[in-house]
Structure formats: structure tokens, C-alpha cells
Amino acid sequence: MTDTIALHAPHAGLGTLFHPRSIAFIGASERPNTPASRGLRNCLRHGFKGGLYPINPKYPELFGVRCYPALAELPEVPELAMIALSAEMTLQAVAECKAAGVRVVVVCSAGWEEQGAEGVERARRLQQILSGGTMRMLGPNCLGAGNPAAGLCLGYNSSFESMAHSRTGRVGLVTQSGAMMGGLLLNGEDAGADVGLYAHVGNAMDIGMEEIVEYMLGDEQIDVIALMIEGLRQPRRFVDAARRARAVGKPLVVFKAGTSELGRQAVMSHTGALAGADEIFAAVCREEGILRVQESEDLLSTAASLAHWKGRQPVGRGGMLVFTLSGGAASILADECAEAGVPLPALSATTLQKLEAILPSYVKASNPLDVGGAVFSNPELPRQALAIALEDDAIDSVLWVGVGAPRDERSQLWLDQALDVVGVSDKASAIVPVSGHVQEAGFERARALGIPLARSLRAAAQLNGFARRANQPLLARGDADGSVPDLPAVEGLIDEVQSKALVKALGIRVPESRVAASVEEVASCARELAGPVVVKGLARGIAHKSEHGLVALNLATPELAQAAAQKMREQGGELEFTGFLVERMASRGVEVVLGIKRDPAFGPVLMFGLGGVAVELFKDVAFGMCPMSPDSARELISMTRAAALLRGFRGQPPADEEALVEAMVRLSQFAFRHADRLAEMDVNPVIVLPQGEGVLALDAMISCSGRT
Known about the structure:
By secondary structure, the chain is α/β, with parallel strands linked by helices.
């Protein structure tokens, strides 16, 4: 997941990829379901207006279009060529396209880096052919691209055979999975989640996902960009694109595959053990305003819904109205909305008065508003009640929950009533049936009106939550200019004494301590500290002392301290002792953990959570990017159960949360300043003392890599 060097100038040729005036299909044949044949047939079926040139010396004509024996025989140089040949034959075809002046090639074949040493060598030859010119390539191992408005559809799996592209959406879709792209597009089209541009990047040897995102951000026909991600080749470019997307008001909606890891490499720190690639990607999404869906089925529907809502009042200035014909659905939605951060505000006194004037006495005017019990006596009641409630100033959006898909006269009537109201309102709206599915023909009017259809109550609540997040300002980024101490010029594990010295230099308090070179010196060190002490055995290469029996707590006398050190020495076996750390026993407080991990893709991240020996057991942690602002630190704290303890759980006095925030900011600045060498860092536990008394770092571990 490291940034790669682009072969060509950014965005060169991408206009041609999505808006070609002519296309050659190299490898088309009379077999209708081969890739180039399908690409040709799809473009014919969708009404592509430019030149279409199948190339195969075996045929004079294919699918009603003149076929040519070679690229050189065409009446013009095609702007785009779709190459569907074997990997070896593809090399020659790409070279011929480059020599002829073709602007973009789409390479379909497999047989490259994914097929071992031979494929890697073949990929090197392909890259060599591309270098030194201006021709761009999508692929290889690629399913193609499309532009419904232009009749362009190069996709060649079976899903594309059924696509009508009858409506042009304002969503740009980029995927790293070809099969998933076909399924997403087909299901999305059936449900009204239509796209404006789409592409599968395949092996992304030249044109990658990040570059296509940049292009779509500048395309006026795209309002929202949806991404199906397996891995990022250019993570820093991806972050830059996300920031630009935020600046121009085009939300990024992503689904990331491969969130679990079957095994993680051995790591020294708690942070390293808990900071998997997906946890860090989630932090990037949160901090950069990227909207991440958890299920692939919600990717296009969420993106298309946000595009539909672009012309409505912004969601986020008020709350959502739940209008339902099902009381059970209303109670479920209350929970789902709370989880998604969607407020369900009380209706105003004026609105309640108007509703009570038309509702029967046994129907309560409220939000959620359930009129299901009265519709049989007054079929027009849903229309009237919805129109009144939607005018409430506290309402910025509405979710209409039907009793099912419109399969009979009554359910169709109720749906039409809702569409009559929400179709002319400037407030965002969505519909969810509690039975049936959103692809059913009865929802065609909703699709034509651009009213989103949610596949479930949870999906509907999450959609509204995403819209709110898209309209919320991001937290300020951290200040990278803070002065921090230098790292020692060593590689590997830095012992606790040196690590704590660095922590102290950052302004984070550590316990008063002494270092004893031998067991015999421990008693005198304890005597100097005057009071209960902690003794820790210092052994070369040991990161977690408690796991090796190298920590003894609350030793009341110098004699007990020395005895504890002697026991460590005797039971230490082959450990290479370098001495003993004797510390004053710390006051009680809330134990938390602070940690740093350097992610190879995104750089240093800070971990915060409940501390002590159980940090990996409970995994109550959250991650943020470095450097961190005070507001970002507070947000991280709020994401964990530790927040309740810090703020005075069950009558306990509140802890010094602001001192903790300052420590987090300083640690994040330290990590950012030394991002090239700081591999891992744990400060665990950190005792957060009562308000006004600060924090105390009881242990610290730093691991450095060589200079990069």
C-alpha cells in the first residue's frame, strides 16, 4: 500500500476514456459473449454515436458493423481501443496502438503480476511499451468503463447484458473488482441508483482508482463518487483526493473489502497488535469525511441517494420525521436512528395541533408518526398527515415506511399519496417498504422522481446519518509545528528509562525514579524515594515486563524492594539484565493507554483506550491520525468507554481530561515529527488523575527503525 510513480501526466486521456469519439474492438469475433464482442454489442445496443470498428481478419462484418483485418486498415485512428486477446498477443496489440496514435487502450486479459514470475516479467514488458509516450491504459485484467449518457458500455460480464441505462445518474463508480462492478450496476439500476460514469481499474498498471476519482471531481455530470476498494496503491493521493472532494462538495462513499486479517505480524506494542490496516483506514475515513458503508449492497444506493438530495434542503439543520403505517417499524427505527446519529425531534405545538385536528383520538401525534391504525377508516389520512408534519421547522428530512411493496390497489394508493407530498417538497425524503424489495416495478414512479428507496430500516437510518455527516464540518487538523525532543540515534527497542525521559521531555509527567545497577543498590534507591515503591527489572529486548514477572508493586520498605529485585534475578533465567528501575508508587486514577504505530500507507496513528494489562483483552480503543488537534483528541476519547470513567462514572470525581488531551496532542506531534523512524510506541498505563492534577505515565516503550 505504497504510493506508486505515475507513468503519465495526471488525468491525461481520461476524458477520452469516458468520452471517446471512436472505438476499436481488437479480438471481437462472431461469438457474441467474448469480451470484445460484448463491448461492441453493448455500445450498439445503447446507441453509441461514434465510430465502432471491430478488428479481426476472419470476418467482413460483425453484428451488422463492418469488420477490419487490422488496425492499420481503419478509416481513422480510433481514440480508444478495447483489446481482448491473450496476454502475449496483447503486448503486440498495445505496441501497434501506441504506434498508430490511439489515445487510450482498455486491456482485458489476465496473465500479469497475478500469475507469478512469468506474469511479472510480462507486466514489465507491457509497462516498457507504455513508457515514453502519451497513450494511456486502463487495466490490464480489466472489465472496462462506461458512460450511459454517451451510450458507452465496455463491460463484458453477464450483468451488462441486462442493463438498460435508461436513466443517467450523477454518481461516478470506480471499482477494483470487475464482477462486483457488474452486480452493483445492475442491482443499482433496478433500484433507481443510477450512475453517470463507471470504471473497473483491474491491475491499475497505469490509470488507477485515485486518478479516476480526481478526474470525476472535475466532471460536471458527477455529484457523488462511489468506490469499491480492495487496497490502495496510492494512499496519500487518495487522501488528497478525499480532501479535494470535501472542498468541492462531492461526497466520497466507499465500501472496502478485506477488512479482516487472518494473521498479523508479531509486534512489540499493544498498539501494534490492535492497529490493523482496517482500523487505520476507518480512522482516515472518519477524519477526512469519507462515508464508509459496511455492506456492498449499500454502496450505490447511498451514493445515488446523496446525489438525489443535492437539490434539496441540506440534511443536518434539523431532524428526521419517521412517517409510518407500522408501529413496529417505528420502534425499530428509533433504535437504528440513535445508532446512526439521526435525531427524531419532537414536533412543534402548532404542528401537533394541526395533526390532532385530523387524527382520530386513538392515534398519537408524535415523531415517529404512526397513522396505520386509522388508514382503513380514512384512506386519505396518510396524505394529509404527512403534508402537515413535513412542514414542521424542526424537520429537515422524512422517511416514509410503507406496509410493503405496491402490489395491490391499497398499497399503491398509499405510496402514491406519499409521492404526491414528498415529490414536491424541497426536504430530503426516502422510502422503505417493510416487505417486498426495492427493485419491484411498482416503485417506478419513485425512481422517476428521484426519491431514494432503502432496502431496510437500518439502511434508511444509516443513509440519513451519512447525509448529516457529509454536511458537517470536519474537525481542525493538528498543528505539526510543535517543538519535540529528538529520538536517540539507535535502532530497535529503546528501554523504559530512555523512553520515559522522552515522554517527560514532551511535558508528560512520569513518576520520580532511580536506576539501580544491581540488586544490592535497589534498597538504597527505595530509601531515597521514601515511601511505597515499584520495582521493575530492566532486561535487554523485553517490551512487556509484567509478562515476564519483572514488575513488583506497592513495596512498603527498602528490604521488600530489594527482595523483589532478587526474586526477579533468580527467576529471570536467560534474561540479560541491565539493572532495575525503582519508582515512587503512583496515586490512583483512571488507567488509559496511549500508543503510536507507523502505518506504511498513511503514516503515524495514535491509539487511545482503556489501559493496563487488559488493553488487548477488551480492545476498547480508537485511532486517529497524527498530528492531532485538541478537538480530534476529545473525539477519540468520546469513542471509547473510557470516556465514561474519565467524566465521573457512578459518582466518582471527574478526571483531568484536558491534561490527557494535551498529552495526546504532544505525543501525536512527536510521532509526526519522527514519522521516518518511530516504528511503535506504547505509554501504558497513563494514570489520569483527578481534575486539575494532570496525568502520570507509568510505563513507556519506544521502538525505532533505521533511517529512511
